[in-house]
Amino acid sequence: MARLTSLLTLFVVSSSVAIASLPAHAQEGDMFPTKTAAQHRAKHLQCSGVFQMGDQWMPCKNFNAYEKAIKNEK
Fold it and tell me: In 1-74, where do the E strands start and end?
């Protein structure tokens, strides 16, 4: 039972670290409190859609699309 608890704890901590590291590659200021603001930024980045990251919104349909868009930003 203790081993199972340890494994579950490790899984939860690892998952939290993986999720928390996603916005690390986001450009400063690309997380918005409203969906509308993220949609405006998506239009500027020439990507479609928005996605939620916790209680914030980010431009593009997902994080992979966002990373591609910021690499192409002029």
Answer: 50-53, 56-59
